[in-house]
Amino acid sequence: MDWGIDPARVAEISTIASSRRFSARDTEKFVLAITGGGSENADLPLWDMLQVLFSLGALTANPRMPARDAAIGCMLDESGILLRPLRQDGPVRVSFAGATIEASAAEIVLSYGDKGEAKTRSFSWSRIRRALGLADFLFAAEADERSEGGLVALRTALDAVFALSSFDEDGMKRAVQEPARFMRAWRRRHLPLLAFADLIRQREAFLNASGRRERQREFDPDDLIALWSFALLHGETWSFARFAERFSALIREERSSVGRRDFMAPASMETLMARQPSENPEEALIAWLDHQAILGELEVDEPDEDEEPDEEDEDGVVRERVYAALMRLPAEPKFLNKEEREAIGRALAILPLAHEQPLTLARSRAVAPWENRLVEASRRIAGSNRGQVDQSPEPFDYAGIAASLAALGRRLDELLLIGNALEAIEGPESAAATAEGQKLLRRWRHDRASFRIDDAKLALTFARHGGALRTVAAALHRINRQQKRFGETTDLVAQAASDEARFTDVFSQRYQGRSKRP
Fold it and tell me: Taking a C-beta distance cutoff of 8 angstroms, is the pair 175, 68 a contact?
């Protein structure tokens, strides 16, 4: 079974943990260092790694082996030939690059800095083994098309550390940059759900609290409001529109990995979150990797300029390059003004829910201005400590929201027709240019000064951005089809009134009774 990470990467980490004879707890901490889940600062284990290598290099250096090479020797010395004497031959003390390093049977102590700002770091031998394991991981991490590999990052860091004339914090900050950059890229590739950690925890807690574990991740529009309300009571601060966008992004990432990820049971997650050690180191490794596979970061591939619009997979998910296509549409000539671009972007951000739950899209657009006013009013009152939030909503206009999206779709259609007309003008089939496209071009040139350039230059721009334009138009057309079907099967006025009442109840709790309905 694939545990949400390349099995080859699992094997690499497991081999390191096994060869260094990590205990169950050390294995878990080691995997946390790799996945970035050990502390709020994911780079701290890399600081430990470099300080340990610096200390070991200084302690084991000799005339035939410079400190940098000695540090690499200690990393590769799994048998303990270089490290054993430091633990068994009594305290060893050296001075190197302005720092003092002392080794004993219990620990290594690194002291550095001026007297006024002297700092001391202590590393138990268990911690040293984990730091060497992390260096071992970097040493073995292969290069790919996006990075030069962990070995280059490790070598760069060691060169920087051992080139310091005086060991200090500033030098460490510079040295740690390359391995930190590599580890962030590694996590983006292999742990693509890390950015959704808080949302996934909220979802799991909500399912447990509501007794709906059997439903797993199947959320209808009302479930999503319930989850958002639950999250607000447990520290969430996102608006409903932002929460819906974030939840949609999580769905996209999970669906992109259908068939290759297994999601853990909540009890197992809670155990891992509590840092409970496992009895078997290899099981601990798999458990943590499974846990981290749930908590990844969305990564967007850069699209090719001339790609055709996305084909939707069997789950109806439109790929992330739709957003990139929207951003690539030129500012000059102005295909879309700022408001139009933002309106399309907000709709696309809720895919696939915008396809599957047109009500969620309508709700997010209707409630956004109301919630924004509540937030601003609450801030003003907090600053003055007077009065109450008394902001009532404008009536939710679901039909109007659908009409606005349809109008945006028609504008994109007009641009496509203009592009076709320009292509015909510049090509051998000029007589085939459509009258409608020519008519639209004249109107756009009248309305927007940026279109008042010669046909050849304008045609080149449309040819360059035609693929992106078709991608955005195709995605928006399906959203509009769903909105139309929704309007034909739902009493929009009654639905809007019901939703106003529901959001009012949530806001009354969120603003502690300071919001009231008219």
Answer: no
